Amino acid sequence: MIATIASHQVLALRRQRVFVALLGTLLAMTAIAGVLGWSSHRTIVGIYDEATKLVVSQGQPAPANPIGLQPTLSLLSNMVIYIPLIGALLAVVLGHLSIADDESSGVGRLVFSRRITRSTYLAGKVVAAAAVLGVILVASLVVSTVSLWIVNGAAPTIAELGRLGLFYGLSWMYLMVFALIGMLAVLATRRRPLALLSAMGAWLVITFVVPQFTSGLRPTASLNPILDPVSTSQTFFKVTSKARPLSVVEQYKAASGRILETGPTESIGHTIARTTPIAGLLIALVVAAALLIRHHDFSKGSSHD
Asked: What is the Cα–Cα distance from 253 to 239, expressed in whole angstroms?
């Protein structure tokens, strides 16, 4: 029954063109990240060539090529920003539609007229969201690989492909958190618009508000993985910074930077530990959804909601 519910949900998303929209958006994000990386690469090479000509003309040895000093995967560093910002919003919409559409169309009433448990229904929805996000991120992985191949002029090594796989695996877990938030908001509220607004409010708090308190980041600075803002010298932020390990978006950015080798060097154990808040929040959301769905009334949904 779980597989049946999951396949039905995936089919519904495909018929509504939601799957295509999500896939197209994330692939566009990945392509943009590749283009920006290529543009940066080309600019650095151009400056290096001109600087080399000038230095050699003065009889001095040519400097080292800066391209060789930066990690190969740094070309995709913008994905560390795009996924928590845009990807998380897409995941919220995906989770919201998974439950809200069944209420609005009356499918929920029909489903529970059969011998099916609510936990099975929820599991099917979660599996569907996980599958959709997995397919989308695998497609993004392919585009990232091609981008690296084009820009660097050589295929990524096995180690680099492994790091990309780890990065997208972490991104899948992070996006699943927001898909569950979208589902949870529908189960916790009675009105569809309120559910979507509540889920987006949660995204806003996690993405901008929590980092502002735990690291002293201004909302615009939250778009960049700043490690030690000046404002943490203030007494208030010295206290709130103690909760920084619980900020899932900051831990995601730090772990992603380590995986892509664009962040400070740290032990593998420390990087793995950064995923603990994300996994913990994911488990907590699953438990909360399982509790809420037991008491949620699917009979009150309507096409006019």
From this structure: 22
> C-alpha angle 167/90/16, rounded to 5°?
125
Residue 149 CA, chain-centre distance (Å), reads 23
Structure confidence at residue 154 (pLDDT): 81
CA distance 57 to 81: 41
Q: What is 37-103 written as a DSSP string?
A: HHHHHHHHHHHHHHHHHHHHHTT-PPPPPGGGGS-GGGGGTTHHHHIIIIIHHHHHHHHHHHHHHHH
Instruction: Round to whole Å and give the CA distance between 257 and 271.
Output: 10
Beta-carbon contacts of residue 53 (< 8 Å; ≥ 6 apart): none
Question: Which residue is it, tokens 């003065």?
Answer: 58
Q: In Å, what is the CA distance from 77 to each residue of 83, 148, 260, 273, 298?
A: 11, 12, 8, 21, 43
Q: Which of 73-77, 235-239, 301-305 has the highest mean pLDDT?
A: 73-77
Alpha carbons 173 and 82: distance in angstroms, whole number: 15
- Whether the pLDDT of residue 279 is over 80: the answer is yes
- Residue with token string 């569907």: 128
What are the two backbone dihedrals, phi and then psi, of residue 268, each rounded to the nearest 5 degrees?
A: -60, -40
Per-residue model confidence as pLDDT tens digits over 85-98: 999 999 999 999 99
* Residue 38 confidence (pLDDT) above 90: no
